[in-house]
Amino acid sequence: MDEEYDVIVLGTGLTECILSGLLSVEGKKVLHMDRNDYYGGDSASLNLTQLYRHFRPNQEPPAELGRDRDYNVDLVPKFIIASGELTKILVHTDVTRYLEFKQIAGSFVYRDGKISKVPSTEMEAVKSPLMGLFEKRRAKKFFEFLQGWKDEDPSTHQGINLDKDSMKTVYEKFGLEAGTQDFIGHAMALYLDDDYITKVARPSYERIVMYTSSMARYGKSPYIYPLYGLGELPQSFARLSAIYGGTYMLDKKVDEIVLGPDGKFVGVKSGGETVKAKQVIGDPSYFGAGKTDGEGGKVRVIEEGKVVRAICILKHPIPGTEDSDSVQIIIPQNQVGRRNDIYIAMVSSTHNVCAKDVYIAIVSTIVETDKPELEIAPGLNLLGQISEKFVTVSPLYTPTSSGVDDSIFVTRSYDATSHFETVVDDVHDVWRRVVGKDLELKKREVEVEA
């Protein structure tokens, strides 16, 4: 291989595939390699055989689960927020032509021992058991304030400064109860813990407005999901890259990251050959993560440490969700005496990810003790009878340096959030470091099946 590339991308996770697609469109010569024989890396969707091979190498899938090819089970559970940043990237790159989306039927929140639907209409809000009558009035004023806010018009500010006042101040101004704050902060602003309350209100305001505008876009819930699973997303960006001249190599071992005498990246060694390039982008597993604890190299384990995820195969919808074919359920941390929320994401045969009358539910949270599986018990207990369960505990890695000095750019691990906004933040961050300028996106609409 005498060819020299502008960028080599290692790993076909969503972050890496978005970057290789965008860089190819920008005219860069991209080579994309992955040690696996499937797309998606840590964010892949596996068929039944791959799922069992991944978690239980010595066991065949039970025949009663149906055909192998009916399954596309996500390793990392995430939904797409209809008005979010990932939707903007999908539309900007026109990758939507390779994908079909379906709506997630409902968003639920756990409160006082039971699950309730996050209201998606005025009517549902009036009937919702999440708030009493007077609290509903206060909440209505709070949402009207957020929707009516205009930066340039002080008459809409009601004495609040979003860039100086904390979210606590905003909640107190409208007299919202702790339970309502819980539901707004965790089920709508989608924070994993309560740290946001003491910080300035602007990011929370933006998150809540994004949630409500996503809800308004398609009704029912703010989330959409690609048919055939999340593994379709990296594959679609890989197609985009290929159209613009990107080269893909799956099942390709990476033996060494080659550095020059000055410590800068020069190429990647694979099976006795060295491919040269000016820059390399890759997921943490290609830079020492997993072999050691990752400390002291290109990556380190972040403070939150680890995510525990349980992939559960069910033969029924989750009880108490109105027999929905797909849901998100959030268990706010203080409802179960934790520091971090527990998430449940469920999809079904409607999304072409499993056989008919089968449901795939994934329960996840950030690990806080030395008994991770016990920590997700409140989520597992909501699922009813579980046919099969696969539990993983994954460390969360982040790069130790910007990569600007040695041309080695490492992406972050997929966190415990149930949406892709943090993935897109990472895409923007890596793009800025690799290209030296901000990524600008055009806005168009995305089509969704109801």
Automatic annotation (TrEMBL):
Molecular function via GO: Rab GDP-dissociation inhibitor activity
A Pfam family recorded for this sequence: GDI
One annotated Gene Ontology cellular component of this protein: cytoplasm
InterPro entries: FAD/NAD-bd_sf, GDP_dissociation_inhibitor, RabGDI
Gene3D superfamilies, alphabetized: FAD/NAD(P)-binding domain, Guanine Nucleotide Dissociation Inhibitor, domain 1, Guanine Nucleotide Dissociation Inhibitor, domain 2
Domain of life assignment: Eukaryota
A GO biological-process term: protein transport
Family statement: Belongs to the Rab GDI family.
Descriptive protein name: Rab GDP dissociation inhibitor
